[in-house]
Design brief:
79% of the residues lie in helices and 0% in strands. By secondary structure, it is mainly alpha-helical.
């Protein structure tokens, strides 16, 4: 229960500080930039570089690819049937396709499954979800021109560097490894703080795309994955982490893309906010039963 109190405490504190005006958008911008350009790349570098690539669960990454691609196809079909067009359709596809596997998935995985769970969450996020996000996600948001921005995304650069170091058999030793780990671990509390401060329940105006998004994102896709893994006889922590990551609410970075490419950011914020609150309630309920 200590982990529940810690995560929900940070989440609620962020909401309170934002409501009081203590934390403002300029402060959040600095924290987001720190996470995306410093702490998350450090966490990725230390986790991926230290993996035994020959025995790593790369099927977790493949599951991530399949889930994202399925989410894109399903969300496009539902969006077309619902009559969404232009910026609204693109935002609907983004928030339905991409789960919050990093900002929310990392602390949840660590709280539920420990350090081993966190390592599988990083694989799912960085090697599964992330390549699809920086390719298909950027393309959905801004077309072909946006792909030039994707290749300069710091976490992607860190992932490529980590894979290169791992492939070359290079080990990061102390004191560098201790420093990188210390910086990387700041990602977990800060990401919860960022999400708590970004929640805007008042952004909920149009319920139809919101309900469709969260139903597909947090219920349909993880349920389908659970059934497939059960039929294949796949169990254990790696696959439980994969199901948990698949059930995460819409990714916070989808709102960043919505702002950057002038899409329907209100819809993105509404889906992220409601989905995040629901996931926090479910997380607390699950932790209470353990």
């Amino acid at each position: 229960m200590d982990k529940v109190f810690l995560i929900t405490g940070i989440f609620c504190l962020a909401m309170i500080l934002r409501r009081m005006g203590v934390v403002r958008e300029k402060h959040l911008g600095m924290v987001v930039r720190y996470v995306l350009t410093v702490s998350l790349p450090c966490l990725t570098l230390m986790t991926i570089a230290a993996l035994d690539l020959r025995n790593a669960h790369f099927d977790i990454a493949v599951i991530g690819w399949a889930v994202m691609l399925a989410g894109a196809v399903v969300s496009w079909g539902i969006g077309k049937l619902a009559g969404f067009t232009g910026a609204r359709l693109r935002v609907f596809m983004l928030v339905t396709t991409f789960p919050n596997t990093g900002f929310l998935g990392y602390p949840f995985a660590f709280a539920l499954f420990g350090a081993a769970g966190l390592s599988y969450a990083v694989i799912y996020d960085q090697m599964g979800m992330f390549p699809i996000f920086v390719s298909l996600g950027f393309f959905i948001a801004g077309g072909k021109e946006s792909l030039r921005h994707a290749v300069r995304f710091p976490p992607l650069i860190a992932l490529l560097e980590a894979l290169a170091l791992n492939g070359a058999g290079f080990m990061i030793t102390d004191p560098a490894s201790r420093i990188l780990k210390g910086i990387g671990w700041t990602t977990l509390p800060l990401t919860i703080f960022i999400i708590g401060s970004r929640v805007r329940i008042t952004a909920v105006r149009d319920y139809k795309p919101l309900v469709w998004c969260l139903a597909v994102r947090m219920l349909v896709l993880p349920l389908i994955l659970f059934v497939i893994l059960h039929l294949l006889g796949k169990g254990g922590v790696p696959y439980r982490v994969a199901i948990m990551e698949t059930a995460m609410p819409p990714a916070l970075t989808t709102s960043i893309l919505a702002l950057r490419y002038r899409l329907d950011n209100d819809l993105a914020v509404a889906c992220i906010s409601v989905g995040t609150v629901l996931s926090m309630i479910l997380f607390a309920a699950v932790m209470a039963t353990q």
